[in-house]
Amino acid sequence: ARAGVNVDMIVQNISEEGRTDMTFSCPVNQVPRAEDAMEKARASDEINFHGLVADTDVAKVSVVGIGMRSHAGVAARMFESLAAEGINIKVIATSEIKISVLIDRKYMELAVQALHDAFGLDKAA
To answer: Which residue stretches of the chain are H helix?
Structure first.
């Protein structure tokens, strides 16, 4: 926040070995600022981390809707439709009305079309 980085998705994973992996996303134009802030925080002993990896070749794709609260299976349908196209999900973040995934940028258009097809968004109302 102090560095002016707009962090979006945050995922934490604790391994059996006790190591914690943290993943977050931010706008691609803010990646250098985020990297600089992380390195400064490590240098001042605010945080400690083994390595820092920035992947700017990803895209975020989301399924959003108030109806997700009452309709089971939305996540499964999303994941199945992406898998059917051979699209690997790198990160998943969910809320009550939104499921977002990070995928390789090269699959962004294919993912959007697959999700439109899976949820019938390409049909006239």
So the answer is: 31-43, 74-84, 108-118
Per-residue pLDDT, 51: 87
- Say which residues have a Cβ less than 8 Å from residue 14's Cβ, sequence separation at least 6: 20, 21
Torsions phi, psi of 14, nearest 5?
A: -105, 125
Counting as low any pLDDT under 50, the low residues of the chain are none
Q: What is the distance between the alpha carbons of residues 87 and 58, in angstroms, rounded to a whole number?
A: 12
What pLDDT is stored for residue 124 in this prediction? Answer: 60
Pair of tokens at residue 45: 């002993």
Alpha carbon distance 81, 118 (integer Å): 6
CA 18 to chain centre: 23
- Residue found under tokens 């993912």: 111
Domains of the chain from N-terminus onward: 1-56 (no CATH), 58-118 (3.30.2130.10)
